[in-house]
Design goal:
The structure holds two protein chains of two kinds. Chain A is mainly beta. Chain A is 14% helix and 44% strand. The longest helix of chain A has 18 residues, at 4-21. The longest helix of chain B has 16 residues, at 2-17. Chain B has helices at 2-17, 25-28, 127-133; strands at 39-45, 57-60, 63-67, 72-79, 81-88, 92-99, 104-112, 119-125, 138-139. In chain B, the strands form two sheets. In chain B, strands 8-7-1-4-9 form a five-stranded mixed sheet. Chain B has a four-stranded antiparallel sheet with strand order 3-2-5-6, with no helix packed on it. The chains are: A mainly beta, B alpha+beta.
């Protein structure tokens, strides 16, 4: 840290880490999730175990998620006893977008946008009691 | 030796001066004004005591609501809707989230390392965790809120 070479390395490393950490999350504007007429009641699912997901999202264990509608990409679930955020250059509250047993994206309620998870990531869920 | 003692005393005083010095959260929580029916409450708090010199203003939808004082908290009641919290030092850090009627949100103001100056990063915290963490903080708002 004391010598000029070490200082240069420190600055270069800090800038590199900063740029990688601050990459913007690509977002696609989307219409709000729609609840299809065929859905009789709003279902709730639970996530039994903690899962670390893309974009620095962490789904904590024993959390419950309420179905709030569907997008063409999948079904949207809002947390009811936790919060979910994704991080890029900024932090955004997010809902899970699931297709079957896979996470296909995050719905950002404030931005009205979808952040696609590519490729989809398996996620362990169960029907809530 | 005497110079060292004086130096340490000055340093401790300077650090203490930079931290929140209002009433403790637990001592004043019962005096908070109740939320209005159409509003929710957003608590802002900073538990990290490092970086006392870094205390940027905290903006809520572009309006200053307080400062990121180490060990401090403050709150803002707002109508339900979409909100953006931002703090700027050498870089701007933002958090977006929704607020519902009668909902309580906790925003922790974390200190991250920057190139030259630390960054204050607002993070949305689980209600359970936020309610516990904020108990270690002291009021750092403009005017202590009181019941009407």
């Amino acid at each position: 840290m004391g010598s000029p070479i070490n200082l240069q390395r420190y600055i270069l490393m800090t800038i590199t880490v900063g740029l990688v950490a601050c990459a913007d999350i690509p977002l696609r504007k989307t219409a709000p999730p729609v609840i299809p007429p065929s859905v009789a009641s709003l279902r709730t699912i639970s996530v039994p175990r903690e899962q670390r997901l893309p974009s620095a999202a962490v789904v904590r264990s024993n959390t419950r998620w309420q179905y709030v509608g569907s997008l063409p990409e999948g079904d949207v679930y809002r947390p009811t006893n936790t919060v979910l955020t994704i991080e890029g250059s900024h932090i955004h509250e997010a809902y899970l977008v699931l297709k079957g047993k896979a996470l296909v994206g995050y719905y950002l309620p404030v931005e009205g946008a979808l952040s696609v998870v590519e490729p989809p990531v398996p996620i362990e869920t169960a029907p809530a009691d | 030796m005497k110079v060292l003692k004086v130096g340490i005393a000055i340093l401790v005083a300077a650090l203490a001066a930079g931290c929140a010095s209002g009433p403790a959260f637990n001592d004043m929580k019962d005096s908070f004004a109740p939320m209005m029916a159409d509003q929710g409450r957003i608590y802002f708090y900073r538990t990290a005591m490092g970086g006392v010199a870094v205390q940027p203003s905290i903006y809520l939808n572009g309006q200053v609501v307080g400062k990121a004082v180490p060990g401090g908290f403050f709150y803002a009641d707002r109508p339900s809707g979409n909100y953006e919290v931002s703090a700027t030092t050498e870089a701007e850090n933002k958090l977006t989230f929704t607020l519902e009627r009668a909902q309580t949100r906790y925003v922790r103001l974390d200190m991250n390392i920057g190139l030259f100056v630390g960054h204050i990063v607002p993070r949305l915290i689980d209600e359970n965790d936020g309610a516990k963490e904020i108990q270690t903080t002291k009021f750092a708002g403009e005017t202590p809120p009181k019941k009407p």
